[in-house]
Amino acid sequence: MIKPGDAPRTLVIADTGVGIDPADLPRVCELGYTGFNGRADSASTGIGLYLCAKIMKKLRHTMALTSEPGRGTTVTLGFDEVPDRVE
């Protein structure tokens, strides 16, 4: 886990919820994908992590997820400065 000061331009968000099944983790940022937990809970739409990933990519930042079923999920957002690109 990243400790404060190790990555000054990083935001780490962690919970102690149900976690994400390892088989679902590669797809949780796809539009409409809810995975096993989402299908069990009719309130899931499969849009939240999709939008987060889309916004971070558009801003040229990074987003990484790690999770362990029964222990929770950690989302790491990287805000490194990116040089302006010329199009």
Describe the structure.
With 87 residues, this protein is an alpha+beta fold. The chain contains two helices and three strands. The radius of gyration is 14 Å and the shape is globular.
Q: What is the fold's blueprint, element by element?
A:
Elements: E1 10-14, H1 35-40, H2 48-58, E2 62-68, E3 72-78
Antiparallel strand pairs: 1-3, 2-3
Short structural description:
The chain is α+β, with helices and mostly antiparallel strands.
Please name the defining characteristics of this protein.
single chain, 3-stranded antiparallel sheet, 2 helices, alpha+beta, 87 residues
Low-confidence stretches: none
Widest sheet: strand order?
Answer: 1-3-2
**What share of the residues does DSSP label as strand, in percent?**
15-25%
Helix-strand sequence = EHHEE
